[in-house]
Structure formats: C-alpha cells, structure tokens
C-alpha cells in the first residue's frame, strides 16, 4: 500500500511481442526475469497462458536476491517474497499459440528493496509439481534495458528449491536480449516524511 503523500513509480514492460514457451511439469521448473529496484515493491503483474496438458500449471511468484550478471552465471538466491499458489488452467485450444494471455496481479505488500539493486522475479512451478504433466508460457518482449529473461535448465528429479538455485551451472541466460512481459509498481516515501525523520534525528542529538 502506498502511504499518504508517498510517490509511485512504475516499470511498465507489459507489451507483448511474442511468447516464451514453456515452464511447468514437462518443461523448465523455473522462469526468471531480473530487474533493478526503484523503491519498495507494491505489485507484480505478468502474463501467462496454457501451453500443454493434460494438467493445469500451478506455480508461485517469488522475488529473490540475485548473484551474477549477464553472461556471468546469474541465478536467484534468497527468497524475499513468495505468493500464494497461482494456476494457469489447461486449455486444449492452446491460447499461447494465439498470444492470448491471462493477466496475474500479485500484491507484494510494499516489500522493502534497495533502489539500484538487481533482484529477480521467479515463476516457480517446481513448488507445485504433482506428477501430472502440464505447462504454461509467458508473454515476452525486448523492451527492458536493466534486466533480462533467464531460466533453470537442470534436473529437478533430486533436490529442492535451495539446491536448484545454487546449481549455478544450469541457470541459462542465453537470451539476454529477451524479457518476460511484466509490470512492477514501487512506492517511494514522500520527501516531507524523510525531511521530518531527519529533523527528528537532529533533535535527538545525532
């Protein structure tokens, strides 16, 4: 929630150029998009569509810290936020082929992030694996200059999310010109709030 007098800043990269296929139980378990924070994260929006079945694709959205950079072993690390389980219902007409997507809006609750620092949005399908195959795709574009799309190409037959995140060699960032379509809304404290806080410190002798 943006506080009274606060400011909102939006990274709007939601335009659809194409699709990235696919993540889920018969596909990579994790899709990821790096971004540079500009304030506290309020909402995350992205687009997804059914790509295969017969099962729905269940997943969670994570915001994580990040190590590495473009071409330098980028991978997610500590999880700072995890959504409830979300679902892309299986659709045998495969709307992904028509670039017809469902929009997901996730409330991140004003997650405190450090401006200028790189973080990652992770679409985690592994968390909801149930043994029945199904996958989804995400909308894609090439418009965001401060991050890029990458994914996990390793096996998830063993290990858990933590071991997968640390499996640096199997995080693939070969599509550094591509981005997932996404929108992020950040809140920034009002300048008057910061000024009053500073005056308070002066009054206490700091």
Question: What's this entry about, in short?
Answer:
The chain is mainly beta and 206 residues long. The chain is built from two helices and 14 strands; from the N terminus they run βββββββββββαβββα.
Describe this structure in words.
The protein is mainly beta and 206 residues long. It has helices at 161-166, 191-203; strands spanning 7-13, 18-24, 30-36, 40-52, 57-67, 75-82, 86-88, 102-111, 118-124, 135-141, 149-152, 171-172, 179-180, 182-188. A hairpin with a 7-residue loop joins strand 5 and strand 6. The longest helix has 13 residues, at 191-203.
Summarize this structure as a short list of keywords or feature phrases:
seven-stranded antiparallel sheet, 206 residues, mainly beta
What is the topological layout?
Blueprint: E1 7-13, E2 18-24, E3 30-36, E4 40-52, E5 57-67, E6 75-82, E7 86-88, E8 102-111, E9 118-124, E10 135-141, E11 149-152, H1 161-166, E12 171-172, E13 179-180, E14 182-188, H2 191-203
Antiparallel strand pairs: 1-14, 2-10, 3-9, 3-11, 4-8, 4-10, 4-14, 5-6, 5-7, 5-9, 10-13, 11-12
